[in-house]
Amino acid sequence: MKSKKNFEVKLEDHFLAGAPAIYIQSAEEARVDQSLVRLQDKLGLKRIHEWNLGHGWVDFENKRPLSNVESGKTELEHALLALLDADLERSLILIKGARPALEHNTLAIARLKQLLNLIERHHAGECSVVLVSEAVCIPASIEAQVTLLSLPLPDRKEIKAMLVQAENNGQLTVPDNLNDLAISGLSGLTASEIGQLLRMVGRQTRTLDKKTLQTILHEKEQIIAKSGVLEMVSVDVELSDIGGLENLKHWLEQRSTIIRRLDEATRQGVKAPKGVLIAGMPGCGKSLTAKVAASLFQLPLLRLDIGSLLGKYVGESEHNMRRALSMAETVSPCILWVDELEKAFVGMGGGNASEVTARLLGYFLTWMQEKTGAVFVIATANDISALPPELLRKGRFDEIFYVGFPNAVEREKILSIHLGKSRQTVAELEMSKLVKLCRDYCGADIENAVNEALANAFINGSALTQQLLEDAIQSTIPLRETLRDQVGKYEELFEKLKLRPASEYQGHSVAQMIKLAADPNHVKREEVASNPDCPDDQLEKLAMDPQRSVIKAVYENPRCPERLLSIRINIPKCSPQYDLELLELACLNGNAPEDLLIRQIDDGTIDSKLRIKLATQAKGVTLQQKLATDSEAAVRRTLSIRKDLNEVLQTTLANDSDQVVRQNLANNRTLSDGAAEQLVEDKHAKVRAALAGNPILSETLLLKLVLDKEVSVGAALISNPSLASSVKSQLLENGASSIKQAFARRAELTESEQLLLLKNADTALKIILTVHQKLSKEVQERLANDPEQSVRVNLANNPGLTKEIQEVLMDGGDYGVRQALLRNPGLLLDKVKLKPKSLIEHVMEHNNNLGLSINSRRR
Ligand code: ATP
Question: Ligand 1, atom 9: nearest CA belongs to which residue?
Fold first, then answer.
């Protein structure tokens, strides 16, 4: 009610102060009438003369055309003539539809001016013309005599009264639990729009429910959109959708704690947050942040398009601004997103541009200062240089953030977010490479590149791959490239204004790097020269630095431009600029062009030492292929241990004349099946042995190696940690005895391994097995019944034997076995039973063993 009271107080003040004309901007004629009636009653005015577009002069009470008006001419210019003789004392002259009536109507304007002059001279403070129209049109000739007022939209109390009236009329009942939501839903609309909406909903249902409440909200979106100054933005993003901008996100999270518990915070003396200005580069997430803030604060988001506020009539821009802001206030609590704020202050053209700008700014700043409703403003701007300094001064907004191009950490996060949205997994994703490739990209560029790669994958009918992503990134011309000068300018300004960076400190901004590149301290220049985010032009400058360490840092920089590297690599030996150390650095830089390196190798410019270094890190396949056939074995040996060689390259190396190259390859954990198949047949046992120990070898190839007669191959197989059980069985059953013996000596042997070993075991192997600590019951039994006495004697020594097996051994009656049992610390039998036999018993036993018996001899 406060705003409306303010309006009526202002109306009265202006009337009494002698304003010849008051322009009320409103489409709500009935509410204007009510306010005028209250003014009439309060000041005891005699009458209100009303004119409207349809009928000319009408009766203010019943709106019927007045019959006493001469002629049928109802147009304003004629109607005004009637007032020349009228009694203007203590009266209001109400002109409705003022804009269409006055627009392009020179005669009406001239006659109105005469009337205003008359009022000014003779009736100041007792008569005013009240012009009413939805849009403002104040002709320049009467501008000085007109005061502009706007009728505020119905506040919560007025809306509540309208709901009560709707219920009393039997139109619509609003349950208590939906009352607040219904009032919020209807806030921001004119009384007639509310009336219409209630009638519409009343036709659908007698009692408001959540579903019909949605209809209200939907209709409201339409009405707000129709107003042309505000748009309700639907939000489907959350905090995790922003990659990076950690400072800004953290700040918003903190504000959300206050905004979500605003009543409690206000009671504790906490001021409601006013808003934030987010300035910075296009496509870097400013709009995204406004939407995320709405979801974080759980508030509706109203977008104010500054461009649409600007009107051609005097006062129209300010009025539109006023209207938008008051609409936002009635919708509050809400977020008002003032998009492209700088538009209000630049490129308005026309002679009065600066005046309008100043007034708009003034109005906006005052509103920001005085606003009481819970409207949180998020203003976004690209060109901060266009914003007036008073807007950037501390205190206007709670904080001003600068959003720059994403740094490497942020680019990775943005890539992950957009790849995550695609719900496709990329096999062997090399994120760090993608991050480097999109150095100059804004968030929108990264999103576009991912979308492009996805579209191409779909068109090809393939899955999303690293290559498709790299191609899409490389075919995108980043914004920073196109706007390089502007970017530099903005970033310098950002430095100068000391705006708070939205991103966490993760390196220098471009502006800082430009500054540091010219620093007299070479350590600082070196730091910039090795920064992967350093712009190309700065690197080119630093490549000519008087300090050698700075130049070296440039050539070592992973983002050193190809142009710079090519120039260095092309310097001939005879040139005074030739520098072996710098040449090496340039050649080893991942950005060095492959074709140039190959040519230099062919020309003999790159010596074997450097070729060895290249072999450790060359990324391009063509260059790797070149190195794979290098005349120096050392180069090929270096290459053969790399884990990232493709199959063609491996096949080349598998055929290498140098045994070490092949051996290295056989050891390589990324060995392809094709190359391994070749190496299985290798004439050198060392190569085959290396292969046999390679845990990635397929079962088929391992089975082939089992048949290898070479002991070292078998030994390597045995020690292969990922030996398949079928291969192991083959090996333990049919392998060379030396290999089986080596295996049998292992501390850990499973039961099946023991049984396999026993299958074709000779005495030596059995003896090795007998001492094993954890022999299975079956193996113990089989060894205890072995015809070889030495086997049984050795077994009898084993402390891990079961009582049952010890009995079997004892019952065997062998003297040596019994003696061994007696010495066994794990003996579970009664020693008395094991007491040595008499000599005769012993001889008999011996004879028995020889297949004789005393009886048979006797016979
Ligand atoms: P403009 O000034 O041109 O309006 P802007 O700074 O408002 O640009 P946004 O519209 O927010 O940029 O960004 C465009 C799109 O780029 C976003 O919808 C989002 O998909 C993507 N994007 C930009 N920055 C980020 C980011 N930091 N994290 C994730 N996505 C981002």
Answer: 285
